């Protein structure tokens, strides 16, 4: 069994960062063994728990690969001076037995750097729209080696728009279709910290070999973190050249374009920009609705389409904001034992901060209602009174102008068909051209919307 443990240690050493191996795995020795169990040493209870939570699944998997998948592993605190059998064993729940077979696509593939893929971050789970179509195609082309010769991709976009999803989707794809390739997935902060540690520990040569010659596919996120870190920038630029000369592939991602990152040396900046550059913008309404519909499938609470459309209309900006709204609505319904409906959704979303630079249909409607002393109920009623029809038409026009909602969704907001919205928009535009009665009101309310002066729901 000692021989088996030595084999597993050698395998694990190739899979995790060197400093992690030296800290957690290398000191571990066999305390007791049998045909179906193995007890490993640990200096204290904290280390035992850390080994059990972070490394036990990996150890179990490596034992499975050498034909010992049914072995039960536990860790025992082994203090200095104690022989075998001394010390208290820390109970560890045994993971589900894993069959000795090639992992199926999308089921917990692990990065060679020691990080783990998020299960749902695959190409199949990525909802594309005009904001992300090119980035999606570029990432997929790089993963499948159909990128027209380019081996470098830079994904640029603000937080929460899908850069990490696409980056990990590439890793998933490569690990699934080319399992022999080593994919390193790290953030710029990880890369920096590992470099600093190797310099202090005198193992910088091992660090260089790991990234320059031991890597087939480097995925490095949040490259804007390197701003002002000159030593890391120089090391990354050299690593880049080594990988490129060896026909390896690289994906970078950042919160801004390479030219916009401050305090970045020219050598690294030019390398970040030499391959494909793809930006990811904020999703439009239809894309947001598609994202919500996909996310809702994984919830144990039914979310009607009208609620999904309402959330998509109210929460613009990044995908995390959408997820937060959806999960909060579903959670409230589940915890209170209430069905998810529009009333419940409104009660939740009114507490979620909206994006500062994009108004919602509800905010615009409230603004118009306040300016014309009309209630929200009157605005969506079937009334054809002029004092209600004119504000309704103006609200439709402003919603069309300042949101990305399609005509059909604007019509639903006001309990009308999309043809009515078209008529209303055309009528207001005609009056504006002719300097008619609504021209001044439309201009005044438009300026308030552009100045973000719509929080109170009433015109000042």
Strand and helix map with partners:
Layout: H1 2-13, H2 18-25, E1 30-33, E2 37-42, H3 45-65, E3 72-77, E4 89-90, H4 133-143, E5 152-156, H5 163-177, E6 183-187, H6 188-201, H7 204-212, E7 217-221, H8 230-245, E8 249-254, H9 266-272, E9 276-279, H10 285-296, H11 305-314, H12 319-336, H13 342-349, H14 361-372, H15 376-379, H16 386-402, H17 407-413, H18 418-433, H19 437-450
Parallel strand pairs: 2-3, 5-8, 5-9, 6-7, 7-8
Antiparallel strand pairs: 1-2, 3-4
Description:
This protein has helices spanning 2-13, 18-25, 45-65, 133-143, 163-177, 188-201, 204-212, 230-245, 266-272, 285-296, 305-314, 319-336, 342-349, 361-372, 376-379, 386-402, 407-413, 418-433, 437-450; strands at 30-33, 37-42, 72-77, 89-90, 152-156, 183-187, 217-221, 249-254, 276-279. It is an alpha/beta fold. The protein has four domains: 2-90, GMP Synthetase, Chain A, domain 3 (2-Layer Sandwich); 123-279, Rossmann fold (3-Layer(aba) Sandwich), CATH 3.40.50.300; 285-349, Helicase, Ruva Protein, domain 3, CATH 1.10.8; 361-450, Chromosomal Replication Initiator Protein Dnaa, Chain: A. The strands form two sheets. A five-stranded parallel beta sheet has the order 6-7-8-5-9, with helices on both faces. Strands 1-2-3-4 form a four-stranded mixed beta sheet, covered by helices on one side. Helix 3 links the parallel strand 2 and strand 3 (72-77). The longest helix has 21 residues, at 45-65. It starts with a helix and ends in a 10-residue tail after the last helix. Residues 83-114 and 455-460 have low confidence and may be disordered.
């Amino acid at each position: 069994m000692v021989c088996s443990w030595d084999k597993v240690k050698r395998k694990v050493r190739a899979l995790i960062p060197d400093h992690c191996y030296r800290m957690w795995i290398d000191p571990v020795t066999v305390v007791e063994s049998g045909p179906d169990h193995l007890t490993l040493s640990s200096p204290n209870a904290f280390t035992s728990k850390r080994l059990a939570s972070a490394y036990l699944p990996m150890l179990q998997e490596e034992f499975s690969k050498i034909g010992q998948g049914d072995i039960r592993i536990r860790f025992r605190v082994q203090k200095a001076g104690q022989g075998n059998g001394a010390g208290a064993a820390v109970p560890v729940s045994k993971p589900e037995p894993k069959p000795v077979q090639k992992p199926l696509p999308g089921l917990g593939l692990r990065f060679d750097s020691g990080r783990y893929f998020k299960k749902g971050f695959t190409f199949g789970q990525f909802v594309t729209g005009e904001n992300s179509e090119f980035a999606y195609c570029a990432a997929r082309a790089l993963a499948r080696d159909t990128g027209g010769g380019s081996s470098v991709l830079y994904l640029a976009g603000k937080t929460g728009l899908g850069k990490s999803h696409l980056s990990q989707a590439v890793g998933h794809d490569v690990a699934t279709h080319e399992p022999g390739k080593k994919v390193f997935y790290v953030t710029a902060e990880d890369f920096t910290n590992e470099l600093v540690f190797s310099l202090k520990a005198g193992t910088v040569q091992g660090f260089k070999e790991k990234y320059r010659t031991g890597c087939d596919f480097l995925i490095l996120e949040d490259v804007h973190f390197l701003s002002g870190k000159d030593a890391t920038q120089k090391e990354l630029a050299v690593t880049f050249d080594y990988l490129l000369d060896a026909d390896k592939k690289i994906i970078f991602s950042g919160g801004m374009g390479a030219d916009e990152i401050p305090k970045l040396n020219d050598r690294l900046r030019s390398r970040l920009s030499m391959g494909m550059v793809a930006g990811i913008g904020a999703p439009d309404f239809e894309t947001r609705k598609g994202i919500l519909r996909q996310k809702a499938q994984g919830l144990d609470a039914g979310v009607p389409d009208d609620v999904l459309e309402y959330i998509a209309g109210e929460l613009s900006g990044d995908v995390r904001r959408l997820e937060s709204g959806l999960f909060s609505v579903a959670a409230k319904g589940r915890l209170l034992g209430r069905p998810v409906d529009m009333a419940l959704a409104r009660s939740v979303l009114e507490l979620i901060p909206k994006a500062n630079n994009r108004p919602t249909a509800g905010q615009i409607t409230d603004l118009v209602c306040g300016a014309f002393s009309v209630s929200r109920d009157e605005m969506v009623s079937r009334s054809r009174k002029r004092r209600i029809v004119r504000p309704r038409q103006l609200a439709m026009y402003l919603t069309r102008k300042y949101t990305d909602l399609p005509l059909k969704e604007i019509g639903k907001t006001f309990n009308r068909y999309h043809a009515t919205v078209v008529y209303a928009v055309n009528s207001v535009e005609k009056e504006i051209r002719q300097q008619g009665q609504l021209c001044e009101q439309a201009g005044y309310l438009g300026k308030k919307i552009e100045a973000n002066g719509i929080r109170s729901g009433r015109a000042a």
